Each structure stands twice: as C-alpha cells, then as structure tokens.
Amino acid sequence: MQTTEEAIRSVVQEVLSQLNNRGGYGSASSTPQHDGDWGVFSCVDQAVAAANDAQKQLLNSSLENRAKALEIVRQICDTQAEELGRMELEETKIGRLDHKIEKLHLIKSIPGMEFMKTEAVSGDNGVSLTEYAPFGVIGAITPVTHSLPTLACNFINMVASGNTLVVNPHPGGAKIACEGVRRFNQAIYQATGLQNLVTILGTPTLESADAIFNHRGVPLLCVTGGPGVARAALAAKKRAIVAGPGNPPVVVDETADLENAAKSIIIGAAYDNNLLCIGEKEVFAVDSIFNELMSAMGRHGGYQLNDQQVAQLTSLAFSPPTEPGGHAVLNRDLIGKDASVLAGMIGVSVPAGTQLLYGETDTNNPFVPEEQMMPFVPFIRCRNADHGIELAKEFEHGFRHTSMIHSRNIETITKMGRIMDTTLFVQNGPCGAALGNGGEGYGSFSIATPTGEGVTNPMTFTRFRRSTTVGHFRVI
C-alpha cells in the first residue's frame, strides 16, 4: 500500500486554488456539491446520514484510498498552516499565532494506519484471528482552544481505523472548523472519489450536540472540551471517550536543574498562552531553591509580578464564588491573551518577548485551584518535596490528567508518579514532551482521562473482533 505524495500534493494545490478563486474564507464553492457544502450541514440528521453513507464507501474502498485521505489532511494542515492558523486566531481571538501555526504543522506526525494491527493464534484446533474493526460514525465535540487541530487529529485517528465522523464544534471556533472540513472533503473527493468522510454542523448549538449524543446512527462519542460537555457525554446512553478537565501541577525540589526547570515551565505554560489542557498551571517549589528558581524564570522569558500586582491581576481574572464553597468565577475575556496584554491591564509594561507572567502566591489564590488558561503561573513555597507532592495531589483535584516534576532524585520522582497517578507524568521537561513534542511517543489533541483511554490513537476507536477457523489453515 503506497500513496503518491506528488499526486496528493497536486490535488491539495488544485483545491487551494479553487478555494482562493471562490472568494475566500467560508463562501460557497463553485465546484458541484455533494450532500451538503462539502460536509457542512445545518441538520444533524442529514450530517449523520451523510457520514453513515461515507463510512460504507470507506469500507468498500481500498486501503490505498484510505491512506490517501489521511495524507491529504496532513498535507493541507502542513502546507496551509500559516493561512489556517491565522484564520483560527482571527476567529477565536485566543492564543498565539506562532503556536496556532505550529499545532497545524504537528498534524503530520499524528499516527494513522500504521497503528492498526491484526493478531493471530494457531494451534491443534486451527487458527484464530483478532482484528480491530470500526464502530461506524463517531460523534465528535471539538474545543475552541484547538478547533481545527483537534478536528484534524480526530479525523486521522478515526478514519485510519475505518470510521467517519460528525462534528459539533465549539461555536467560538466553528468557522475555521467548517473551512477545514470543506478543504479536506473536497481534496479527498478529487483524489479518491470518497465523499463526506467528515461532516460538521455549520451552526453548532447545545441542542445539536445533544442530538448527536442521542442519535441512533452514532454508536460512539469522542468529546474534547470543558467539564460541562464532558458530563453531558458521560450521561449519554452509549460509549463515550472523554477528554476532560485538568489542572496540571509542577513540583520542583532541591535537586533540580533550576535553569532547565525554569525553561521547561516557560515553554509549557506559555504555549499558546496556556490554552493546553496539559500545560503547567501551578508550581510547588521547595523553599531552599525557591528564590533561585524565581530568578531563573526571569532569564528564560518570564516576568515576575510583585504581591500587589498579583493581587491586581487576580481581581481581574476572578470574581468571588456565586455560592458559599463554590468556585471562583473566571473572567473568560482574559483567556488566552498575551502576557503583555494581561500586564498592561494592571498598568505594568513588560519587556518585548515576555512570554509568561509569574509570581508568588499562597494556596488560597484562585489561580492555584482553578484551571485558568492564561499566561500567568502562581508559585507556592513548600517545606520539602513531600509537601510539594502533597499539595500537587490536592490541587490536581483527582482529575488524573497531567503532572510534572523537576528533580534528580529518583526516589522522589517515583513517589510522585505513584501518588499522582496521572495519565501523563513528565520528569525534567515541559508538558509537551508527553505528547512527542520534545519527548518520545506520539501526539494527540484528545487526552481521554475520565474514561481511561489516555492519549488517543487509531486503535482507541476500534472494537475487538475474533474470527476462528476450526481444524484448518495451520500449515506448520
């Protein structure tokens, strides 16, 4: 099974030319349509029906065509990353352009059909084959934080295993998600004849999400988003793969390489202005190295706020809980803004190139318990490493999502790994290392923690099938 990269690139360039000729972003294509605007629908029933028809086509098509479809999505994301990343930032108005672009480039490394496998057992009674089959149509919810990258990642994982998908994007990132779907479907159709491998709701709502959750034509759900949509998916009467919330802590002990720790925290927490669910959200550092670590942060692109400035930023970022014992209310207008913008709101001018704000707090500051998504990280003094791990466990809230430690003490690292029990556990590096960005392993934009699948890949979206032949086919 081989794909011709030059032929695929030619198709992608032809589609891009047609998209440019039609008058730009989001307008109707001049090319004849196929069951919707190249996969963009206004009705859930129609979107699901089209995805079901597409899944039948996919199973009756060749594996070579399937591989072409995946490569087309990779190439569109890679070669058009600057244009599409800019579109996403213009629509969502959160995050950083350089990282929007980088996330689309990263799609080329998302695993595809090479992850699929067949297992065989042979013996006196014959041969048994275990294969991993598709579910059919997967209902996917994508977040505003990584709208098109999540959709493209899901496409590669799900189509590689023989599924198609119907997407209800976050309304704040629906325009770029729909543009991606149009481009993917048009290029795939021209190269393979396959239509609507991904369909999407052009005007997504809570009602359309609920309709997908409960649709008889959708046997499996994959949700990447906040706590509310995660709960809704888990309440549906079908299997759901859910990427839920996180509040990743970092522990830094007295043995750590502080320059590396500071650099890693900046890289991870500043990435796309801390929109990553795996991003460093709070740091627990032992007292003996605390001041030195704070100084190191300033040498790697951070800007330290004093106590008064931290208090000012906190008052802008959070309102008091609406009920006793409740959560502080996050000011969503600050999500994903640049560090310089946040600093300017409290009257602070930061040097050019500042990536992250940071400052000392105690555990009562709402930046510590809340999964805020902005480039400010609170630092909390701890008596020792055990105290830091204890606080990390408390403020990760049992999400079992992601945690990090900087230490040269293997016993401390082992202890934290056991106590935290998180899906992702990074030692001596930034959070992205857990997803192959600076570390080993493969990447994904859906980390299924509540339901246990972890870092999703094509095998995540399959069901087990066994075929047994009695008395024959063992030729040894």
TrEMBL record:
Q: What is this protein called?
A: Succinate-semialdehyde dehydrogenase (Acetylating)
The record places domain Aldehyde dehydrogenase at 43-297
Originating organism: Gimesia alba
**Record keywords: Oxidoreductase included?**
yes
> Has keyword Oxidoreductase?
yes
> Which domain of life does the protein's organism represent?
Bacteria
Using the UniProt record, name the top-level EC class of this enzyme in a single word. Answer: oxidoreductase
Q: Which GO terms describe its molecular function?
A: acetaldehyde dehydrogenase (acetylating) activity
- Keywords carried by this UniProt record: NAD, Oxidoreductase
Write the Enzyme Commission number(s) for this entry: 1.2.1.76
InterPro entries (UniProt xref): Acetald_propionald_DH-rel, Ald_DH/histidinol_DH, Ald_DH_C, Ald_DH_N, Aldehyde_DH_dom
Please give the SUPFAM superfamilies that the UniProt record associates with this protein: ALDH-like (SSF53720)
The gene name reads sucD_3
**Pfam families registered for this protein in UniProt:** Aldedh
